[in-house]
Write a structure and sequence with these properties.
104 residues, mainly alpha, 77% helix
Length: 104
C-alpha cells in the first residue's frame, strides 16, 4: 500500500506541476504558436476544465482569472491526492506490525 500511496502522491504533484507551468505560460504571454507551449497549455486546460469560471473577473484581467482558477485546480488536485495517499498508507497499517507478524 505504501508504494501505491507514493504513486498517488507523485501523480498529484505532477498534475499540480503541469498546471503551475501552465499558469506561468499564460501569465507571461507565451506564444501558443510554439508547439511545446501549445501542447502544455492544452494539457493544462484539459486538467483545469472542471474549474473554469469559478471566478469571472472583468475584461482585461483574463490572465489573473486563469491564474486564480487554475491555481485552485492545482491545489484541489494536490490536496485530494495527498488525502488519498494518506488513507492508503493508513490502510496498509503500521509497518512494524507487518514485520513482526511475518517473523512468526
Amino acid at each position: 500500500m505504501a508504494r501505491l500511496a507514493g504513486l498517488v502522491a507523485l501523480l498529484g504533484m505532477a498534475v499540480a506541476f503541469v498546471i503551475a507551468i501552465g499558469i506561468a505560460l499564460v501569465v507571461l504571454d507565451a506564444k501558443e504558436t510554439n508547439d511545446i507551449v501549445r501542447v502544455w497549455l492544452d494539457v493544462a486546460r484539459f486538467l483545469t476544465d472542471p474549474f473554469r469560471g469559478i471566478f469571472d473577473l472583468e475584461r482585461g484581467k483574463e490572465h489573473l482569472q486563469i491564474a486564480i482558477n487554475w491555481g485552485i485546480a492545482a491545489l484541489v488536485y494536490l490536496a485530494v491526492a495527498m488525502l488519498i495517499a494518506g488513507l492508503l498508507r493508513r490502510a496498509g497499517g503500521p509497518s512494524f506490525l507487518r514485520r513482526r507478524r511475518a517473523a512468526h
